[in-house]
Amino acid sequence: MKIRIFLFHRVSPLRDPLWDPMSPALFEKIVAYLSKAYEVVPLEQTLTGNHKPLSKKELCAITFDDGYADFINYAFPILQKYHCPSSMYVISDCVDQNLPPWTYIINHLFIHTSHLSLSIHSKALPPGLSKTTWSSSRERINYARKLSPFMKQLNNRERVLIYEQIQKEFDDVDEPKNMMMSWDNIREIGRNGCEIGSHSASHPLLANKTNELEHELTASAEKIKAETGKFPLAISYPFGNYNEAVKAMSEKAGYKTGLTVNYGTYNSDVHHLFEIPRIELYSESFFKSTLRIKGYIENTRKIIKLK
Fold first, then answer.
1. Helix or strand run (H / E) with residue 90
2. Segments making up each domain of the chain, as ranges
3. Could you report the per-residue pLDDT of 59-84, keeping only the tens digit for each?
4. I need a labelling partner for 259 at 20 to 30 A (CA). Which of 221, 246, 248, 306 fits?
5. Average pLDDT over residues 186-211
């Protein structure tokens, strides 16, 4: 069995200079295209053998990570319009606290603060990020563009240290509340064709979370079961970050499959059930999105790699 699994995060008409959501118009074009070109299947039911394809079309699945409220406001009505099943992987602490993940909060602080300097005391900070005084908000935002991907690579201890310093210094910005779906929202989409899975408890890099790995996997699953009545079948690894220990603990925690951001088509003859690849789609032109959907960008990468 082969399935092309597409990953989305946010669908919203709002613009963001650091992490731009996909517009509802583009999302609808993509969903309309997928519903014609593929058979859109419920991912987890298909992977576990509880759903049989109904046509001879190639299979695809639509997945979302994080649990932003704009899913229910903009994306879900479009999915229902085209009768497309989907899967949503939620961060349980973010739902409980009504706050987005730390990655979004850092961006939010850099965008909205009035400060033009920042003191970060960390030996992990590379020379290219040591200059933390800026002449304009544009310079500050450009700095954030470099800092965010760097922080995703840090171990959790160093990441939290830097994150807390940024929060303390950019004290003129309110927390970005009311951005996440509530458990009522999650139950509603679950009743109407959307599978609910886990994206961990607090969205850390799981491969770096040796002492708290079990908690991240089990606390989220138990919370989802308590709120929805169903134990989640899948764990979507935050940032696609995993290793053998993460795979083993995910299976031990009771999940049936683990989702990565490894680029490519899932092939049941090749891929481990705890290393499911997905193809992320972005806020870009519909033409470029179709190149990703059809695998042209994927194939080009393979050719370049071979050279």
1. strand 86-90
2. 2-98+179-306, 102-169
3. 999 999 999 999 999 999 999 999 99
4. 306
5. 93
- Return the closest-CA partner of residue 112 out of 154, 74, 165, 166: 166
In the prediction, which pLDDT does 303 show?
A: 63
If you ran DSSP here, which 8-state letter would residue 190 be given?
Answer: H
Nearest one of 282, 248, 243 to 260, comparing CA atoms? 243
**Structure token digits, residue 112:** 């909205």
Quote the radius of gyration of the chain (alpha carbons, Å): 20
Least confident of 75-89, 123-137, 182-196: 123-137
Which CATH number fits the domain 2-98+179-306, given the four candidates 3.30.450.40, 3.20.20.60, 3.40.50.970, 3.20.20.370?
3.20.20.370
| 198, burial (CB in 10 Å: exposed 0-12, middle 13-18, buried 19+) | buried
pLDDT computed for residue 307 by the predictor = 45
In this structure, what are the phi and psi dihedrals at residue 153, rounded to the nearest 5 degrees?
Answer: -90, -10
